[in-house]
Write a structure and sequence with these properties.
Layout lengths: L2 H26 L13 H9 L31
Length: 81
């Protein structure tokens, strides 16, 4: 089994478990005046689905300096012209 298959299986299992937790949260939310709905979980679902694209370089981490990455990254914005 290669890494893509393992990743896909992991994401499928994570999605299944998340759906169960989401359903439990909706059913057991104590504030009946402001109930939860599936739309309250959109951001988390997007994050889980983004895991499937992690191998495509969308969220590739920057290598450390010891791994050949940059020694210094300038994060100071340039002055306004």
């Amino acid at each position: 089994m290669d890494k893509d298959d393992q990743r896909r299986q992991f994401i499928d299992e994570l999605w299944r478990r998340y759906e169960e937790v989401q359903q439990w949260a909706i059913e057991n939310w104590p504030d009946r005046e402001r109930p939860l709905s599936a739309s309250d979980f959109v951001a988390a679902r997007k994050e889980i689905l983004a895991l499937g694209t992690a191998g495509s370089g969308a969220r590739q981490r920057t290598p450390e300096p010891a791994e050949g990455g940059p020694q210094y990254v300038d994060v100071t914005p340039a002055p306004w012209p």
